Amino acid sequence: xxxxANARDYLEIAHAExxxxxxxxxxxxxxxxxxxxLFGEAAILExxxxxxxxxxxxxADELRQRAARVRTRGEEHLAQAMPLLEASNAENxxxxxxLNLLASGHALAGRSDQALEVLDELVALLGESRRWKNRQLxxxxxxxxxxxxxxxNLRDDIxxxxxxxGLAATL
Length: 171
Fold this sequence. Notes:
By secondary structure, the protein is an all-alpha fold. The chain is about 90% helix and about 0% strand. The protein contains six helices and no strands. The chain has helices at about 1-15, 20-50, 55-90, 95-110, 110-140, 145-170. Helix 3 (about 55-90) runs antiparallel to helix 4 (about 95-110) and helix 5 (about 110-140) packs antiparallel against helix 6 (about 145-170).
């Protein structure tokens, strides 16, 4: 959490200097990751509060208040992340990493419909990529290192596609 928070200052400077899709993506990812950490911390605090019984009611209330403050900070970071990720996606709409982050952000914000739309787009792009790479492997003669790299990229596409379908299923 501290590493993500420390990186944000540098990413904000970079984005101010060169406001392109890459700097927007990096800064947006930083805010999204920080929001995820904060939501996780809030959930842990709420769980601890629920475990406290009877005599520790004041401690439980304090934990719930702390969880609410942490969740609010997470919502603020999520609200900062989404426009940056959307701007990055607008400039480079076929970048699967951005689409994955956008879908995660929408899901984290409870916007299942938007998350599913982005996931549909992502899965379609990954399917096209997978088909192209399979054709290249079947039809092209290439050096062993090139084939290994293409197979590695194909595995990455498949893993991201499975992850995306899993997120869609949970939504």
